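Q: What residues go here?
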């Protein structure tokens, strides 16, 4: 099965970092190799938290306590707090690239060798090898499945393979001009992908959304086009949807979007992703998100302040305070403030999960004032 990969966020380029090699995730921060150091990134804020000065020119892995880093002919076991090298084992011979930890073993991808080796983390002994039909540029396990990145010529993808035979079971094809130079699952719906000489890290959804778009597309309306499938929205197990939720006026998770502000009251964690509830406030004369449609989500709008101009299908209408509007899935819509007063909307997005995209959307508005 072949699908287009959906990039939902991009970090970098970073000062002083020309290439991104191996990538790993310790449950709190993303670690990525950049030649002479191993960098720690906060995936929420996108800020670099620090770096370990250690040779790091290929794959990176985390076993729950320690980091492992390939550099030349060796794999080093590293204390992530101090950067101390605790042990060194030989790496398999021949062009190592990716590295992952799973089932008590290290998994080493080989670029031109087109192989993935299971390696004893104590001795470096190769326990078994899996042949692939493409260059291997990153390795990870997700929900018991083996995935690896490829980047060959102008083509790059992320593929799930049979760990017994190497047969390709699924492919996520990267957009033109992007590649995968390191690969790590976050244990949930996302892959963290190194971007090679671009000096960036990208976040790719493991299950692309129907009608979803890539952040690399650029136009502001592309940020809000994606529809979130019910299956994807229900992936998280961390739900607290059975309790009463009370928020005083003005409280919620705020996202500044130029002259528009979104305040999320409830989403995945509070509703088991069945729906998302948010307020949207527009300053006088402010544009909204741009014309778009959600192929897999219904939306409900209720005007809570002022008069909002709505595009619903092909028609613009003025909606004063108290107006209710339902936009079915697939219907083109937009909203904006054509008045001299601040206006506000209450939005219900069904099913939920929309907030997971908000940090990237806020970044886009910040970078494109």
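A:
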């Amino acid at each position: 099965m072949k699908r287009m990969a959906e990039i939902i966020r991009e970090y970098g380029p970073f000062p002083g970092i020309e290439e991104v090699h191996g990538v790993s995730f310790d449950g709190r921060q993303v670690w990525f190799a950049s030649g002479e150091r191993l960098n720690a990134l906060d995936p929420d804020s996108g800020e670099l938290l620090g770096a370990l000065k250690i040779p790091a020119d290929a794959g990176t892995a985390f076993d729950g306590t320690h980091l492992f880093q390939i550099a030349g002919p060796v794999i080093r076991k590293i204390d992530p707090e101090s950067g101390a090298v605790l042990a060194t084992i030989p790496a398999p011979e021949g062009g190592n690239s990716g590295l992952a930890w799973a089932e008590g073993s290290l998994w080493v991808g080989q670029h031109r060798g087109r192989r993935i080796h299971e390696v004893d983390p104590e001795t470096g002994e190769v326990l078994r090898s899996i042949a692939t039909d493409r260059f291997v540029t990153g390795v990870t396990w997700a929900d018991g499945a083996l995935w690896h990145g490829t980047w060959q010529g102008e083509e790059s993808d992320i593929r799930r393979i049979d760990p017994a035979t190497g047969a390709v079971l699924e492919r996520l094809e990267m957009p033109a001009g992007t590649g995968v130079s390191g690969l790590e699952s976050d244990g949930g719906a996302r892959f963290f992908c190194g971007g090679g000489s671009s000096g960036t890290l990208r976040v790719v959804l493991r299950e692309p959304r129907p009608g979803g778009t890539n952040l690399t597309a650029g136009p502001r309306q592309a940020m809000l086009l994606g529809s979130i499938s019910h299956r994807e929205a229900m992936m998280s197990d961390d739900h607290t949807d059975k309790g009463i939720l009370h928020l005083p006026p003005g409280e919620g998770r705020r996202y500044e979007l130029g002259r528009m502000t979104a305040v999320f009251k409830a989403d995945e964690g509070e509703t088991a992703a069945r729906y998302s509830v948010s307020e949207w406030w527009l300053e006088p004369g402010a544009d909204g998100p741009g014309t778009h449609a959600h192929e897999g989500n219904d939306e409900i709008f209720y005007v809570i302040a002022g008069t909002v101009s709505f595009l619903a299908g092909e028609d613009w209408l003025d909606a004063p305070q108290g107006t209710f509007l339902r936009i079915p899935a697939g219907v083109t819509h937009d909203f904006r403030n054509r008045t001299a007063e601040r206006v506000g909307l209450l939005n219900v997005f069904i099913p939920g999960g929309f907030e997971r995209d908000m940090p990237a959307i806020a970044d886009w508005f910040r970078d494109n004032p």
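A: Context that may help when evaluating the design: The longest strand covers residues 145-152. The chain is about 5% helix and 45% strand.
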